[in-house]
Amino acid sequence: MSRLIILISGRGSNMRALVEAGLPVAAVISNRADAGGLVWAREHGIATEVIDHRLHVDRPSFDQALAETIDRYRPDVVALAGFMRILSAPFVERYRGRLVNIHPSLLPAFTGLHTHERAIEAGVKCHGATVHLVTAELDHGPVLIQAIVPVRQDDDPERLAERVLRAEHIIYPRAVRWLLEGNLDMTGDHVRTRDAQPQYLWADGSAEGL
Ligand code: GRF
User: Fold this and answer.
1) Which residue's CA is minimally distant from atom 1 of ligand 1?
2) Measured from the CB, is residue 168 less than 6 Å from ligand 1?
3) Where are the domain boundaries for CATH 3.40.50.170 in the chain?
4) Less crowded by CB within 10 Å, the N or C end of the chain?
5) What are the respective helix, strand and coil percentages of the chain, to the nearest 5?
6) CATH entry, 102-210, from 3.40.50.300, 3.40.30.10, 3.20.20.140, 3.40.50.170
7) What tens digit of pLDDT does each residue of 182-206 get?
8) Which strand ranges, in their side-by-side order, compose the sheet holding 99-103?
9) Among protein residues, the one whose CA lies closest to atom 8 of ligand 1
10) What confidence tens digit (pLDDT) does each residue in 171-188 have?
């Protein structure tokens, strides 16, 4: 049986979507003891761990402690779900091909923070979310699936964020399951599903209940 570790820093709604999809979650790990998602995970009988980044002198020592905790669970896949720490190159290398992230934009557009505000500000008409493998460069790495969410004329960042988040909750479990089940062929930056499942979600209100 494959095993999944989820790393969170906050409310953990994507963590919850992964658990509720029935994925084999071995533990949830947070760098913050007050992450809201930890409470939900404990209530659902999931092992939790806290590795507080403030108790480590530098990034390498935090990353080392994090990796040691992760490795005790011998996971096949490690999923970042709102994990707000930049991970060092050695950490990323250690989990190459099995470390995955969800980012609230159509990468490579809008890397970094405040993506919904920036999308509205830029006047783009399509926004969304991306699940990608993690590489040493922040918010880059091979794309597994993307959700396209139209930007409406009356959108504000909160309304847009809410629709993107609902799409995230659909695409993240889908992509993590592909990884866990070995359903992906990877060549360089190109990732394809072996059974030709669509690697996009068109979340315009006419499909997939959105
Ligand atoms: C999500 O928007 C995710 O894309 C980003 O951080 C947010 C985390 O939200 N990486 P949650 O903690 O999963 O609710």
Assistant:
1) 82
2) yes
3) 1-95, 102-210
4) N
5) 35, 25, 40
6) 3.40.50.170
7) 999 999 899 999 999 999 999 876 6
8) 48-50, 25-30, 4-8, 77-80, 99-103, 126-133, 143-150, 200-202
9) 82
10) 999 999 999 999 999 998
